[in-house]
Amino acid sequence: MELLPYYAxxxxxxxxxxxxxxxxxxxxxxxxxxxxxxITVASHIISLLLVIMPxxxxxxxxxxxxxxxxxxxxxxxxxxxxxxxxxxxxxALGLGILVALYSMHILKEDDAPELYxxxxxxxxxxxxxxxxVGDLISLFASWELMSITLYALIFLRRSEPLSLEAGTKxxxxxxxxxxxxxxxxxxxxxxxxxxxxxxxxRALSYEGDLSMVYLAVIFFxxxxxxxxxVVPFHTWAPDVYQETIDPITAFxxxxxxxxxxxxxxxxxxxxxxxxxxxxxxxxxxxITMTLGNITALLQKNLKRLFAYSSISHxxxxxxxxxxxxxxxxxxxxxxxxxxALMKPLVFFCTGELRRGYESVSLDKLEGFGxxxxxxxxxxxxxxxSLAGIPGLNGFISKFILIAAAFGSGLAWLAIVAIINSxxxxxxxxxxxxxxxxxxxVEMTARALPSSALFPILCLTLLCIAIGLxxxxxxxxxxxxxxxxxxxxxxxxxx
Amino acid sequence: xxxxxxxxxxxxxxxxxxYGLIGRKEMLRMVMALEIMFHSANLNIIAFxxxxxxxxxxxxxxxxxxxxxxxxxxxxxxxxxxxxxxVYGSLDTSKLRRLRW
Lengths: 494, 101
Hints:
The complex is a heterodimer. By secondary structure, chain A is mainly α. Chain A is built from 19 helices and three strands. Chain A has a domain at 276-494. Chain A starts with 9 loop residues before the first helix and ends with a strand. In chain A, 60% of the residues are buried. Chain B is mostly helical. Chain B has a single domain, classed as Helix Hairpins (Orthogonal Bundle), CATH 1.10.287.
């Protein structure tokens, strides 16, 4: 009975497996779509309730919990749950509901909606597993499940050459990163003799020669950095973000890149708490921010511009990880939350633009803000919040990150972040200027369907609300960081 | 001594895999290079599992799980290759250069 909350990932998994055979019988496209959507949203809401209910995962993880399958000298742990896991699970489930709703009118008849929704459920189950597992082999298994499901989602429109090209690039790079993860796992196993998080952490304290462990950490960073789009490994991101359908772009940028951030947090602060890594990460953070922002200045295509801005925001999150103090990690988590609200918002808006005006290239979109008022409002809120204008959510988390960097002696990194913030305002304001410029050709207003209006409205209101009243979120997150890091876990062995 | 031999082989395999991935442009060869990289890591785990004096069941079990996962990834890669061949008429990845900057 006490293990019941841990079975929550089974619900999306069950929904994924029943969706396709049950809805096939309906035959009519509209009814298949509606039933798939209802099952998906229901499975997400039930899992979310299972997480936050009394005696659920949220209640259990007041202190870190380790559930092991058997205890011996070397024990294979199966689950490791703390507040950070619960935070990422809630984020993924909440955004998953919005993505599922928004996909409804983007899908076409030959996209097989029952398979699409089944894959959305499967990727949610894999993320759920990824955020709760407690050993490296399970971590790799859930990581691979997520990657393979994402390949299928990216290849949804596989007969379009450009989409196929972007997907192929993503496939090759992601498979390479998987090979790096296994190699790093093998090095960890060789030098410590353990595969579970706590076992590795304990073995490190009486390990003499750490060179192989440092090599493993670098391999892990490369591999998880691929998914999070950290700069030397980011080349897939703009292509894929530009060419996939918009709900999947929102999903990739909002949730899948956060999975990479989660894995990096676990690697640096739970499994391998080694000294000297902060120099390496702060270097990565600096080049990620700078290159992302400078390349974004050159873009003409709106989705590509947002893809590069997504890369630079991953750089800001890395600043918090590089700082490594509880305050810095609080900043990283808070910025991850804010980025997961702002980026899906702007990608949902570009999806509506693509549907309404058949293009996301900036010169074709001149003046749409003068006719489609709701869309213009939502896009402006997203842009201003990404730029870090005070009063919106992006400002607060950036402020925390920069303050944390100044406070812990990484002043050069804080200055780089401030300069980058200033650069980024340039291209966000350029988009705003194009939006409200007098158009050369007459623009017509497009009404938003309710399945687009609801997610966009939700995210806009959340951006404004967090910007105006950030304190509950900051307090909960600082509690989460305090409870999760550096505390010995409670071991349960059923 | 035996462990050193295994580890050297594994590193050589990793380098061969990386060379094949970077130096070759044909998708089929790249996938083969990826498989070599995967199996260099598997060889590493098996060697370490043997080296502790007894056969560590966790290492052996992990390798079997890893091989199964890699097979799934390989199946997806083959499906993508088939699609690539249908649309582009070849498996040459140097033709995939329409998206730049």
